[in-house]
Amino acid sequence: MNTRLAEALDGIEIVKGAAQEEAEVKRFEQAARRFRDAFVHQGDVEARFLPLLLLALANAFGLLHALILFHRGLLSVGDVVAYFGLLQMLGFPTFVSLFAYSQVSSGLSAARRILELINRENNLDQNVQGYAEKMRGHIEFHNVNFTYEDRSEPTLSHISFEVLPGQTVAIVGQTGSGKTTLAKLVNRTYDVTSGHVLIDGVDVRDWNLAALRRQISIIEQDIFLFSRTIAENIAFGKPDATREEIEAAARAAQAHDFIMNFKDGYDTVIGERGVTLSGGQRQRLALARAFLTDPAILILDDSTSAIDSDTEDRIQRAIYAAAHGRTTLIITHRLSQIRWADQVIVLRKGRIAAMGSHEELLETSEAYRRIFAE
Questions:
Q1: 3-class secondary-structure state, position 54
Q2: For the chain, how far is it from start to end, CA to CA, in angstroms?
Q3: Which residues make Cβ contacts (< 8 Å) with residue 322, sequence separation at least 6?
Q4: CA-to-CA distance for 29 and 35, rounded, in angstroms?
Q5: What residue segments make up the domains of the chain, in order of their start?
Q6: How far apart are CA 295 and CA 299, in angstroms?
Q7: What is the pLDDT of residues 121-172, one digit of tens each?
Q8: At what angle do helices 21-47 and 2-10 cross, to 10 degrees?
Q9: Res 78: pLDDT
Q10: Which 3 state secondary structure label does DSSP give 132?
Q11: Which residues contact residue 108 at a Cβ distance below 8 angstroms, ignoring those fewer than 6 apart?
Q12: How many angstroms separate the CA atoms of 193 and 157, rounded?
């Protein structure tokens, strides 16, 4: 019931935009009805709780026995009262056991869901003793294939290319061609099904996972921000950053001006997932977060999609400055970003259809021209 309610409230704009308020109310009523039925069933089970019946029988037979003994002159009135009072003392532990029974049942149900998540196996080896040197940013893909567990068709097939340290590579392709999946193989969000992804000549599976991810920043289209201050969100990857470093990163990401428009500036607490910010503002904070960590490899997954053209021009210059001296992978369809890439990789149905500069591909690749024609 709570999950459905939270989901409806998170998507309230879509609900109202589609005039589905009544439908969502009915869904909540159905969930509330199921919760009520379950609660009534729990009460029915508790009513059949055996210790309560035994307590009632004990009190009844105890009182009857005491009255018989009193009638025979074997007990005084005070003895009867004291005896029955002692029987009443059994009531507290009995009712506590009833309360504990419902709590334990609810706890077991919740623990089952929590333990299911905790015990879920992660196939990614942390490799604590792995390679953990400072990264230069040399990326190599050697005949990489990748297939999701729930699919039979491979998402990526026979991917091979090389990115030298400091180069900027644009990855383009139609929706579903595997661009984001390819980028997530670099920081081991996924592991390759076959083949090798090398960074600085070392297979990513041989890297210490924490050291690998610490030196790679990925900015995705769907930005996640925490319900904390703006400064804490920017410094998430570098908690010990000074305020001067945070502000410098925000200026580089063209975020400083809009941050200072808030009453509390960098100490402004934003809503869950940055709900109080616009899409462009969230993406600029994500860029600032990436700039602050100074990664060796920067991956931008359509990260300027929610930014207006004026802000985009300034951010393009910031990204260009940030990309200087570090390896940058850009997943985009924007010509303004593709043109200054050192190399463009065209993906089509999980395979590399073409590679080269923007000008070369416009002349030689039909798949590349088709992307911009659409």
A1: helix
A2: 43
A3: 252, 287, 290, 291, 298, 328
A4: 10
A5: 2-47, 50-118, 139-373
A6: 10
A7: 666 667 778 888 888 889 999 999 999 887 878 899 999 999 999 888 989 8
A8: 160
A9: 86
A10: coil
A11: none
A12: 10
Orientation angle between helical segments 50-71 and 77-88, nearest 10 degrees = 170
Torsion of CA 325, 331, 335, 338, to 10 degrees: 30
Residue 286 CB coordination number (10 Å):
27
| Both structure tokens of 336 | 């303004």
Q: What gap in Å lies between CA 217 and CA 135, rounded to an integer?
A: 13
* Chain Cα centroid distance, residue 302: 18
From 215, 220, 251, select the one nearest 332 (Cα to Cα). 220
pLDDT in tens, 104-115: 777 887 888 888
50 has a pLDDT exceeding 80 = no
Length of the chain: 374
> What radius of gyration, in Å, describes the C-alpha atoms of the chain?
32
DSSP state of 136: -
Q: Kind and range of the H or E element at 219?
A: strand 216-219
Closest CA to 344 of 146, 106, 170, 149: 170
Sign of CA dihedral 108, 109, 110, 113: positive
Alpha helices in the chain (DSSP H): 2-10, 12-17, 21-47, 50-71, 77-88, 91-118, 179-186, 209-214, 230-234, 243-252, 256-260, 279-293, 309-323, 335-338, 358-364, 366-373
The first and second tokens of residue 177, run together, are 């061609």
Domain 139-373 homologous superfamily, CATH = P-loop containing nucleotide triphosphate hydrolases (3.40.50.300)
Residue type for position 71: H
Q: How far is Cα 144 from Cα 193, in angstroms, rounded to an integer?
A: 8
d(CA 39, CA 34): 9
Show the tokens assigned to 168: 């900027």
* The two structure tokens encoding residue 66: 């005491």
SS3 string, 65-93, reads HHHHHHHCCCCCHHHHHHHHHHHHCCHHH
